[in-house]
Amino acid sequence: MVTFTDAERSALDACLRILEKAKSPFTLTVRDRIQDLEQLAAIVDRAPSPNTDLFQKENGRTSDSLAEKLIEHGLNHVVNLPAKAVLGHGLTVSKLHLFGLLMKLIDTVNHLDDCKEKVERQYNNLLFTLMAEDLYTALITEEDLQEPWAKKAIHELIIMWDRRTSGYLETFALAIRDLWTARHTIVPVLGTLLGTVEIMRISAMLENVWSDFLSQVAQYEEFVYSLEEFLFDLTYEELVELRLKMNEQGIRAIDRNTSMLMLGKQEISEKEQNIALALYRSYMKRQSLAKRRLLSKEAGPKRSLEEYFVIYLLSRGK
Q1: Residue 10 belongs to domain spanning
Q2: Does residue 1 form part of some domain?
Q3: pLDDT of the chain, 318 residues: tens digit per residue
Q4: Residue 15 lies inside a defined structural domain of this protein
Q5: How far is CA 316 from CA 215, 223, 312, in A?
Q6: Rounded to whole angstroms, what are the CA distances from 246 to 141, 189, 197, 253?
């Protein structure tokens, strides 16, 4: 297994040259982290592939048999996962922390800001890798296993366990990042559910993939609630409360800033935040709430917007 992609290695080498020239005490720290990651990558590489049957039985392990086992015993228990999946996940997280360290050093070492764009791009790519792995895992449930897209999700997850990448990763990452960035400029209006979808559909800022996606799923009420959670950075429960307040005050439509004021919340500025990190944190919060509603059978979306989008990508093919 290659420890670092060419782009990751290029960013690391550029940072190391500047740290060495500046005689930074963190030079040795970064070099040690890189060496640790190379050793961890070698261990990951030696771990058995998820597609390998160590006992070489005639009817050995396949992606389908592995999927059935995971469904039966559960993906939420680490003891049921292939060793390579757990080790590889740790490798990705460790790489993320290395680039996170470099992002913190950028403000303290002269000329290291010349590498800011390179470092941030690799940090973001690693975040989206973790998000994609979590999304594929979330989509593999017993009730969805017979869906054609679920079979593809299983295949992509096993590829990620084996190679730490996915064929759909770049499309997903670029599209979700564009929507997250555009949500501040488009200024969605909370009023009727379909009104929110229409504003997003006609936006010239977004790629055609979003128009196609919205056209296919706009009729599903739960999806629209997921879209509103994403756009307004409010939970479904907060949106219900907000609509009650709007009815009481005779307000027909409001924007995101006004919605925050009506709920007594303060919107967190994302200007100083890393875009991908802000999106990842939002996704984890919305995903956790969706799982809770599914288990408790509460009202509201049972999937995050990102889940719906990945299902769409898997259903249409690359």
Answers
A1: 6-52+60-166
A2: no
A3: 789 999 999 999 999 999 999 999 999 999 999 999 999 999 999 998 887 766 556 566 666 777 777 666 656 666 778 899 999 999 999 999 999 999 999 989 989 999 999 999 999 999 999 999 999 988 887 677 778 888 888 888 988 999 888 889 889 999 998 888 877 666 566 665 445 666 666 566 778 888 888 888 878 888 888 988 888 888 999 989 988 888 898 888 777 778 888 888 876 665 556 888 989 999 999 999 999 999 999 999 999 999 999 999 999 865
A4: yes
A5: 13, 18, 6
A6: 38, 13, 20, 8
Q: Count the domains in the chain.
A: 2
The two structure tokens encoding residue 76: 């939420």
* Residue 151 shares a structural domain with residue 114: yes
Quick one: tokens of 92? Answer: 């990705």
Question: Per the structure block, which two tokens stand in for 242?
Answer: 């907000």
Distances (CA, A) of 127 to 92, 157, 280: 9, 16, 7
